[in-house]
Amino acid sequence: MKVAIIHYWLVNLRGGEKVLEALCELYPQADIYTHVYNSEVFKDSVISQHSIKQSFISKLPRAKRWYQNYLPLMPLALEQFNLSGYDLIISSESGPAKGIIPAPGQPHICYCHSPMRYAWDMYHDYKSRCGWLKRKLMVLLLHYIRRWDQLNSMSVSHFVANSSFVAGRIKSFYHRDSTVIHPPVDFSEFEPTGIQPSDYYLMLGQLVPYKKTDIAVRAFNDSGKRLKIVGGGDQLKELRQLAHHNVEVLGHLDFEEIKSLLANCKALIFPGIEDFGIVPLEAMASGRPVIAYRKGGALETVKEGVSGVFFDEQTECSLNQSIEYFESNFDLFSSDSIRAYVEKFSKENFKIQFSNYVNEVLNE
User: Fold this and answer.
1) Each residue of 348-362: b (16+ CB within 10 Å) or e?
2) CATH top-level class of 187-345
């Protein structure tokens, strides 16, 4: 079977790219189509073993750095890919990827990590943070992108959502049903230490407003408890200025350092609303519980009283109340039980579920 996989861009190795790696293992002969590919980032990944074809976006000035600025051209770029010779098309979508032109009757499965958040549910939030000129341009551009996005959703024969939360957004924005298959975690990369955790809490991810890292910083400023924050992004400088001495904003760290921090933290703090959220699964795979806001993908991954606790409002007070509850019930959370619970999100299970789904589609 000849398979084409379309992924929005390959410039970072994050959750979406982990799904792509699993798809590459399922379909080792598949060709990958993308807008921009940074080979240095993926030199040790199974992705690099595939034939990778880039759109004309890759030939534009400083494409590996400025790729998001070329968003207006991406619909046109996707339509230039000739995929008529493939038996199956799989698009991996959270940026523009599904907008290819399939042949009549050609199965096109879109694995949707999220409809483009900057165009849909977070449009007003993103717009409010832009300068006046960029805001004016953004209004025009994203009006066009939304219309294009809805139109090309009709060319997808089957949608797969990474969570029930995203399935609801697919229904709202595209008026399409979808099947939920949760994304994978490679459990071989994470394991509990078997020793008592340290006294610090951990946040891990991009430092951007919707992650609500500032709520965690203010909560720990108030409580005086230790918090380590790992990641880079627009808010790095702002958060370092906001943090008190008990809160360490560490910036980017390498994978081995992150693994160690995950395995030894008291718990992971997760105050944002995510479509799914791979980081909580990585913490739980390391045997550590999660303290999460009670909304979004975390509701599908964190089991209250087994692998973590929730807080109900995105405020410092609500978060600190949940941390106090967690500490008073700390002995309830066993590393082995957390690890056993989360293994249902393994890469092996993902590959079985996705392969079975593809077989159903092809046999319709």
Assistant:
1) eebeebbeebbeebe
2) alpha beta
Q: How far apart are CA 351 and CA 138, in angstroms?
A: 38
Q: Which of 98-102, 127-131, 284-288 has the lowest mean pLDDT?
A: 127-131
pLDDT in tens, 43-80: 989 999 999 999 999 999 999 999 988 989 999 999 99
Predicted confidence at residue 123, as pLDDT, reads 56
- For 233-271, write each residue's pLDDT tens digit: 889 999 999 999 999 999 999 989 999 999 999 999 999
pLDDT at 129 over 80: no
Following DSSP, what letter does each residue of 313-359 receive, concatenated? SSSHHHHHHHHHHHHHTGGG--HHHHHHHHGGGBHHHHHHHHHHHHH
Would you state the pLDDT for residue 15? 83
Whole-structure pTM value: 0.86
Report residue 261: phi and psi, to 5°. -65, -40
Radius of gyration of the chain (CA): 21
Q: What ranges do the domains of the chain cover?
A: 3-184+346-362, 187-345
Q: How far apart are the first and last CA of the chain?
A: 16
Question: How far lies 295's CA from each of 15, 203, 271, 300, in Å?
Answer: 19, 17, 9, 9
Under 8 Å between Cβ of 90 and 6: yes
Q: Residues 72-81: contacts with CB within 8 Å, 24+ apart?
A: 72/141, 72/144, 72/145, 74/35, 74/99, 75/99, 75/145, 75/148, 75/152, 77/35, 78/6, 80/55, 80/56, 81/6, 81/33, 81/53, 81/55
d(CA 6, CA 28) in angstroms, rounded, equals 15
What is the DSSP pairing of strand 31-34 with strand 3-7? parallel
Superfamily of domain 3-184+346-362: Glycogen Phosphorylase B; (3.40.50.2000)
